[in-house]
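Comment thread on ticket #2218

A.B. wrote:
> Attaching the input chain for the structure job we discussed in standup.
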Amino acid sequence: MTEKRLLMLFVRNPELGKVKTRLAASVGPETALDIYLHLLRHTRDITQHLPLNKVVYYSEKVEENDLWPDQHYQKKRQHPEGNLGEKMKRAFEAAFAEGYTSVVIIGSDCPQLTSEIINQAFEALQTNEVVIGPALDGGYYLLGMTQLYRDLFEDKRWSTEHVFPDTIADIERLHLRHALLPYLSDVDELEDLQKNWPELS
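C.D. wrote:
> Ran it. Output below, let me know if you need it in another format.
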């Protein structure tokens, strides 16, 4: 069977006061928006030339003529109801329903993420059922799978340090073959920015 790969990017519409709210508490909403736009551009730059199908899932509405060029990205809206896990589960469901066999999701908060690490994730899915990129804050910056494992999205304390360990516990309980990518840092707080992207802080 031919492998059919899809990279899904979960992003927030870049609107003042609605992005990087924890960071905005330290630097103000205008600076937080500027930083988020830098993160979006970084995510675009490392993904747009990857030779696989890509879809951008917007939080609020699909944007036309924005920084995600139509020739490189499909565009969809995240499922409007439920928590982050429900929205991601629906996106994976749709991907597998369309016949994809290796599906990876990333966010837009990780300045250390590279094209090479994304390629590593898809390579890992050739011999594993799940691949996960752990974040230093206890979450994850990447999740990939070869079919839908609903348990990985259910009963999670999203946006806490429990997400990654709880997800690994599910993976092990289900006896899934899995691969771990390098630990990277997301940008959520001013401290994250100062450590990983000092030129923006």
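A.B. wrote:
> Thanks. Noting for the ticket: Strands lie at 5-11, 53-58, 74-77, 102-106, 130-134, 140-145, 178-180.
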